[in-house]
Amino acid sequence: MFTDEIEKLRSKLQQNVRQVEVVTVERDRLRRDKDGIVATLKTENDRHKATLAKQVEEYKGALEEMNRDRAQAHSELHKLRKTLEGYAAQKEYGQIMALLDDRTSELKGAQSFLTTADTFSGTEVLNTLQRLNSETLQHTAFIAESMIESYMPDKVLMKTEEQMAGANRVTGVIGGAIVHFLGTKKHRDDPILVQIAFQAYFAHVLQWITRAWNIGGDETQNRLIEEIYEKVRDTEAQAISGRWRALTRANIPRRQRDELQLTSLLTTKILSGLADILLAAGCNASQAELVTALSSKFREKVLFLVTLAVRVNKIVGEDVTSGDLEVLTVPPASLFDPASMEDVYNEAASGTGARVLCTTDLGLRKRVRISMTGEKEKQWAVTTLLKPKVALETVVEIMDD
């Protein structure tokens, strides 16, 4: 019984020994495989290191050679420059310099079109225009009161030929309605209607000054350039059309007049217009006498307003290219629209079909091209910065017959 048991244990022991031997053999094989793999990897790593080191050395050599070539090229370029400087009078050097000048000029031209920054902001332009309106109001009130007191007769007399001629000349500027009222209303005690007519005349002339391509130049030329600009504005991006406008305004050929001569001529024109208004209102003096009186008393005041308008012309024409700043007036007899204009006297009749007598204060609008495609009206952003102020025809109803 014990013998059988011993035999079984012995057999099992032998079996375990054989299994241990098999495991030992497998372990030895795995160790050998591992050592082989490690040796292979080490060999491959060493080979890669050697290759990399060789490449690094080659790159270093190439870099050093490139630096030497660069230094040599720099030295040769320096020598060439010295040579060219030494032979500045030679033809080839002159051609090189001419080509350089051409390229520099081209780059400056391109830069001028790429530059979109405005010299003046919209706020600065708005402040200047508001000042122009304020000064106009003050000066016209003073001129009207002074001239009516000096030249308006106490009684209404028959119209002279000169008075009717003055009325005809000014009708095309300030409108027939206000000229009619000038000739039918009394002004001796209250010259407000004369003042309004003066404001209308100033608004017309000062707006023209601010928008003219060539102030004091040929009107046919002004209209032609305006037509060309409208086509440029309709087909080009804002940056291009704005720069085109600024460069054209700055370089347009002008008559041989300096700014002082120009503003003096414009001042004389305005004084003649004011004299025509006074004739239409019934003043008993000739146009020449009225112009002389206006000039002696108020020339400097009118000259100041003209100078301000010329300044606005330069700002909106040359110094602002990010959009088009348009100085606004309202044509006489237009229907009053509170969305686009302001009633200077805040009459109750405003907005009920009342018609505009005349413009008293200039307005300002900005138009910017924001898209080149799509519906035309959606290609533009239009912002009213300042509504023009107007007097309505109904304002005359409160005046004495």
Give the strand order of the largest sheet, numbering strands 1, 2, ... along the chain: 1-4-5
Compute the gyration radius: what is it?
A: 45 Å
Oligomerization: single chain
Listing every helix as H and every strand as E from the N terminus to the C terminus, the arrangement reads: HHHHHHHHHHEEEEEE
| Average pLDDT metric | 85
The total count of strands amounts to 6
What is the structural class?
mainly alpha
Overall shape: it is elongated
Largest sheet: 3 strands, antiparallel
DSSP helical segment count: 10
The parts where pLDDT drops under 50 for at least 5 residues are none
User: Roughly how many Å apart are the termini?
Assistant: 157 Å
What does this structure look like?
Keywords: Coiled coil. Residues 38-83 form a coiled coil. The chain is mainly alpha-helical and 401 residues long. The chain has helices at 2-86, 91-114, 122-151, 161-174, 176-184, 192-211, 219-235, 238-251, 259-280, 287-319, and strands at 324-328, 342-343, 356-361, 363-369, 380-386, 389-392. 67% of the residues lie in helices and 8% in strands. The strands form 2 sheets. Strands 1-4-5 form a 3-stranded antiparallel sheet. Helix 8 (238-251) crosses helix 10 (287-319). It starts with a helix and ends in a 9-residue tail after the last strand. The mean pLDDT is 85.
